[in-house]
Amino acid sequence: MSRNKNKKPQPILTDLAITQIAAEGKTIARHPDGRVIFVEGGVPGDVVDVQVLKSKKDYVEAKVVTVKQASPDRVTPFCTHFGVCGGCKWQQLDYPKQAAYKQQLTEEAFKRIGKLDFPPLLPIIAANPTQYYRNKLEFTFSNKRWLSKEDFNNGIPLENRDALGFHIPGMFDKIVDIDHCYLQPDPSNQIRNSVRQYALEHQLSFYDVKQHTGFLRNLIVRTSTLGELMVIISFGENNASEIENLLSFLLQQLPQITSLHYVVNLKLNDTLFDQDIITYSGRGFIYEKLEGLRFKISPKSFFQTNTLQALKLYQTTRSFAQLKPTDTVYDLYTGTGSIGIFVAKYCKKVVGIEEISAAIEDARYNAQLNGVENTHFYAGDVKKLLTQQLVAEHGTPDVLITDPPRAGMHADVVQTILDLAPKRIVYVSCNPATQARDLQLLSAKYDIIQVQPVDMFPHTFHIENVAELYLKATN
Questions:
Q1: Is 255 helix (H, G, I), strand (E, B) or coil?
Q2: Residue 400 pLDDT greater than 50, yes or no
Q3: Active-site residue, selected from the candidate residues 85, 88, 181, 430
Q4: 430 a catalytic residue
Q5: What is the pLDDT of residues 43-75, one digit of tens each?
Q6: What sign has the CA pseudo-torsion 155, 157, 160, 161?
Q7: Which distant-in-sequence residues (6+ apart) come within 8 Å of 42 by Cβ?
């Protein structure tokens, strides 16, 4: 375990009052000298002792080490891995308060970053359930299991380091070995634990990310509300017999696996978009269903990871679009076409653009699967494909739906939208900060009509947000 024993420890600050929530799940206290302290693990209303992590001229970063007086909103985390694993960082906060703070942070982003004029936010659409809600999880194999102080105190042998789980925050080579995860429904835990036990019993090597060696790299589990199950195992060595043995064992243990895949990834990174994923058993994909529409999910497909909340997100998007049968809709960053197909029967046509070509293949398949004939999907960079040539072919959009990645839209895309001037824009975002930035640019021509936060990720600080914009009247 590579820890710098000579590094001087940062000070402990005592009896600090946590006063408010901040971005990225942190909370705020005040240093005795007046500086703002961004605190990990706090809850507004707590009185805590904190360990300083970083001390700058204008602010301090710290983490809670002792709760002297608990906030009324503090609850006991339900997961034994809380505080070590990088996920579910808000488990210590009562869920209704989580939802309220997400709404507050969205509103603050619109005010502080976008400096926008907007109506009161609609009440956040809270998640239900708040556990076992994800349809996709990716676990990492590592020969560098994170050892806690308890492990050292209990005399765990240092050579016993194989792990299958999640990354320790800020440590690319350290993995916390996950026993039970509350993010994905059964049989996700059984799959992970069975694979790990088999690997240990058969002395299969776990990946060493520094040396780029080892047989087992990653395990991906995808589920659907239709009861279908996909498993993908990524291997760091092309050992055909061991691959066959492990996959055969997995099918014997869990015959309900609908779609079993593997990939031999000899690259230095874990991304699979440029790899050949081989179907070992079953279909090459699984199906998901939303409001009577079926969607094909292949190993490389993007699909909203909270299916039940995705339905509410799409319903909100469709409602905000206020579609008419004569409308032409442009769907930017369409992914596998799920939003475009979801709204297609309410309008004249949908034109979807997405950079990942495999996703566009799925979008076209999904349209055909559902008998949707008024969609047109294009693969390529949005800022390069959203051109006058496309408009000449399909017409100026009456409604534009955009669902960009966390970084938001490129400034060129925003300018093109302003030039096209669709009557209505529905902006779906997984990052209210970049959404606020983009809306500030769009405010040159658009008014914000409605804003609807949707909680897709309970026990995290992440939030989806939908904004409806309408073209300003011209004199």
A1: coil
A2: yes
A3: 430
A4: yes
A5: 999 999 999 999 999 999 999 999 999 999 999
A6: positive
A7: 18, 26, 27, 29, 48, 50, 64
